[in-house]
Design a protein that fits this description.
- The protein is flat, with a radius of gyration of 26 Å.
- The protein has an 8-stranded mixed sheet with strand order 3-2-4-1-5-6-7-8, sandwiched between helices.
- The protein is of the alpha/beta class.
- The protein has 21 helices and 8 strands.
């Protein structure tokens, strides 16, 4: 996410991070490079220029040149301004109606239908709502089928009427169906086109007038950069939508849409799509995104994701096992399953401060744990519960059964033993020993 922009901003701010003397000249030169980085990320020229002018004014106003830590202060100013540019605060979603009606709009191929499913899944699991998906794309039979597949996948009902070619009537009937079945949120998936046209705008405007939604959301593919911003403006002129959804942020996106869309349409980014799975949806937090763009990671989001997967009862059982030295590979496997539910590995690693730079160019597979799981599944129940029994002949059999090498089996055992010791120390309060051990680990 934003790899190229992060790298270029890091290079631009490098001079001011304590490398060399800070002067008004190199502050101006740095901001010129910051502006160039933003333009390369497909940010609108006017917005990029205003951004750097504002940062320069604030920098000189706060005496950055005479500051004890001018580099850090400058990075903070850039981060604060980026946060402000992307909306300042996270915006919630209005669920006040009964049922609450959410109208999805956007071009064909923006990921609208998939995101309708993600949003339904999010509201069902995290807001304890009972959503209904309504298929109002009467032009593309595949869109109706796709929505039904998505609904089955997440356990959410889909309302459709294949014999009806009137999307307004379908939307109204969908809301009536929601009321009769106790659904308290209705998400209406509308037709998209390959480009903005009058017929599409009239149609979605008619649906909007007929159903009076609490939320009208514009879904945009973040990989389309400045085009996404122009399309958002065209839709906003007709619909006056309430918020933006940025999809495909896990792709090779330059970031221009995320940074400049709020300035152009004056509407907040409410959610982002970060992967293909139905769980790959996040509330958009401008300050956290600014941290990530500047390579500072996003520890808060990482902790939130971990807490969502945290099983208190299971944690208590594992705690008892650690205390009795009975922590085994089955327990290790359950921990891996929890990590996998948190999201794709590259995205998770990118939330760790400083990790983005280290991961540049690395292709981290979503199945990063695959060989570890294969090794554990090749063990007998006895070997999993008592790892000390793994002698040379057992390791050879496990390696053959899992399609790995004896070295990989040994490496997993070593990591498992280190993790077990560390967990034991955490329980016993052996802070100094644990810190020493972590320093010795690669």
């Amino acid at each position: 996410m934003f790899d190229n922009l992060s790298e270029k901003l890091d290079k631009a701010l490098h001079v001011l991070k304590g490398h060399g003397q800070i002067t008004e000249i190199n502050v101006a030169e740095t901001l010129k490079e910051v502006r160039r980085a933003l333009l390369d990320a497909d940010v609108n020229f006017k917005i990029a220029k205003e951004f750097t002018n504002t940062v320069k004014e604030k920098a000189l106003g706060q005496n950055v040149l005479s500051s004890l830590q001018p580099g850090q202060l400058m990075v903070k100013l850039v981060k604060d301004e980026l946060t402000e540019l992307m909306g300042g605060e996270a915006e919630g979603i209005d669920l006040s109606g009964n049922p609450s009606v959410i109208l999805m709009s956007g071009l064909q191929g923006s990921g609208k239908t998939t995101f309708s499913g993600k949003l339904a899944n999010f509201l069902k699991n995290k807001r304890t709502k009972k959503p209904l998906l309504v298929a109002c794309d009467v032009y593309r039979p595949a869109a109706i089928d796709q929505l039904h597949v998505v609904g089955d996948q997440i356990g959410v009902e889909v309302y459709s009427d294949r014999g009806n070619n009137d999307p307004v009537a379908i939307a109204k009937a969908g809301i009536a169906h929601a009321k009769s079945t106790g659904c308290n949120v209705v998400i209406i998936d509308t037709a998209g086109r390959l480009a903005v046209d009058e017929q599409m705008m009239n149609e979605i405007s008619n649906i909007h007038k007929a159903v009076k939604p609490q939320e009208t959301l514009f879904v945009v593919d973040s990989m389309t950069g400045q085009d996404a911003v122009n399309t958002a403006k065209a839709f906003n002129d007709v619909l006056n939508f309430d918020g933006v959804i940025l999809t495909k942020l896990d792709g090779d996106t330059r970031g221009g849409a995320a940074i400049s869309i709020k300035s152009v349409v004056d509407k907040p980014i409410k959610f982002i799509g970060t992967g293909e799975k139905m769980e790959a949806i996040d509330v958009f937090h401008p300050s956290r995104m600014a941290d990530r763009i500047l390579g500072m990671g996003d520890v808060v989001s990482l902790v939130e994701r971990a807490q969502e997967q945290f099983d208190e009862e299971q944690a208590r059982k594992i705690q008892k096992k650690i205390a009795k030295n009975k922590f085994g590979f089955d327990d290790f496997l359950s921990q891996i399953q929890q990590i996998k539910k948190m999201g794709n590995m590259k995205d998770l690693m990118g939330m760790i401060p400083g990790a983005g730079k280290a991961l540049k160019g690395l292709d981290i597979d979503d199945d990063a744990f695959k060989h570890i799981e294969a090794i554990i599944h090749s063990m007998t129940p006895e070997e999993r519960s008592t790892p000390a029994k793994l002698n040379a002949s057992r390791k050879k059999r496990i390696a053959a059964g899992s399609g790995t090498s004896i070295q990989e089996v040994n490496q997993l055992l070593k990591q498992f033993n280190q993790m077990s010791k560390m967990m034991k120390m955490m329980q016993g309060g052996g802070g100094k020993k644990m810190m020493q051990m972590m320093q010795n680990m690669k």
